[in-house]
Amino acid sequence: MKSVAFYTLGCKVNHYETEAMMDKFIEKGYEIKNYDDIADLYVINSCTVTTQAASKSRKYARRAKRRNEDAKVIMVGCYPQVDEDEVSQIEEIDYIMGTSGKSNIVELVEEKISGKNKNKLLKDNLNYGKFSEFEEMSIKDLSETTRAYIKIQEGCNQFCSYCIIPYARGKMRSRDKNNIINEVTKLINQKGVKEIVLTGIHLGAYGIENNDKYALVNLIEELSEIKGLKRIRLSSIEVTEVNDRLLNLIKQNEKVCPHLHLPLQSGSNKILDKMNRPYTKEEFREKVNKFREEIPHLAITTDVIVGFPGETIKEFRETYDFIKEIGFSRLHVFPFSRRKNTPAYDMKPRVRGDIKSKNAGRLRKLNKKLMSQFNRKFLGESKNIIIEDNKDNETGLYTGYTDNYIKVLVDPKEDEIEKLKNVKLIKCHNYESLRGKIL
Prior knowledge:
This protein has helices at 12-27, 51-67, 78-82, 84-88, 105-114, 165-169, 177-191, 215-224, 244-252, 269-275, 281-294, 313-326, 353-376; strands at residues 3-8, 31-33, 41-46, 72-77, 95-97, 147-154, 173-174, 195-200, 231-234, 259-261, 299-306, 330-335, 382-386, 398-401, 407-410, 420-430, 433-438. It is α/β, with parallel strands linked by helices. The longest helix is centred in the C-terminal third of the chain and has 24 residues, at 353-376.
């Protein structure tokens, strides 16, 4: 039997697409191997959002070739999409594919292997401007047993000055609602999925190309009616795209998790303007205050970029203080990474690497404090968690998450695993998790 192994870098959309590609290979009789095993094919689903991500993509491609020099190594995704020449010159990579065509990857690979064409391109699809339709993919098998990521949207029209993704993924396009509902229904009925996470490159823009600003809300409402589905989560969404109907849905529908991931990126209006972000910090604050008035137990997590060109200690301090004021429940901190062909690539003055590292460390330290403060608010309360078939490495206890995204460690009976259970939050384990007692 032919075998294939995958390595995935980057966002949840990439992870969804890897699961979908795995299904395509399984349908054609391939055996799925772990990346560390010997395989006939290795597929690296790449990322290029930072220079580090691109470097890792190269590293794992080269590592695959060292593992089996006779294997075919295929690099797919955002990195070859935006850097075709660079990726094509990597000796260890046999074939490349951009962000389009993954639904036909098996046929394209087999056609290339059996043919005489030495061109590394699997498909001539590296012009992002030609992407006009949502490429339908779906998952049938899962690496997780209780949670599934569901891709509902592709592309972005926002063009933040630091971001390469619009050039890698093309313009916004949305998935057909019926296809989404059918996929979710099958995963629940056939695989026992209990929680879904709706994801996309610009999730809040779902349906916008059809002038339907409530398309996402309408989709969530229909999904919530599916029998057996316990939870619906949203991945990242812009603060400007959380409308009153969505907020009310989160407040009133017990299946929709009270957790919003709202990318901030900077707490300085000067830097937000240079980033081409669609809000000021005052507008961000006003929105968040409104959300919390409506839903007091709401978790709000965020992303922040450190060391954007022009960020002095004054702008960093504004960001630090603003994050502390808002009181996010979790931060993801990213040192600024220059990406060719973006407006920010040539922006000056640049921030020294040691300063970026030092300030990123300050924010990560603040993150631990904020996470601990948020979690402690709920000590003594009872919350539902879906107990995952996944053990904490340190304690050996099973893990689960509350609806507002607090990690809880529990000691369940065998028949309680993969079930929705009510737990009492009894004590802090560390800054990022609580201990729970199953009721």
